[in-house]
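Narrative summary of target 7.
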Amino acid sequence: MKTFIVPISPMRLESQIQTTQNQANVTNGFSNVLNQAIENVKESQQAADQSAQSLLMGQSDDLHNVMIQAEQAALALELTVQVTSKAINAYNEIMRMQF
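Modeled conformation, tokenized:
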């Protein structure tokens, strides 16, 4: 009686599938975080502009809070610019790597 050995067909490992899915989730996650941060900066700038406008129109006399909001908006913008710059530098460094 002869027995035949059937070759095993190559399969994708579950870890390879999960790694691909995790990479997609990380990309979407980073994109969402970045978009949310930009939206927060935009909202803080709009709030600071509204506060300054109400102060100039005489509707408010709270100069202290207007200055705080303006400084918060400026710091949020500076942070966003710095994070963007670091991300671009990291991307460029990765592109320069030799494989």
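The chain has a mean pLDDT of 81.
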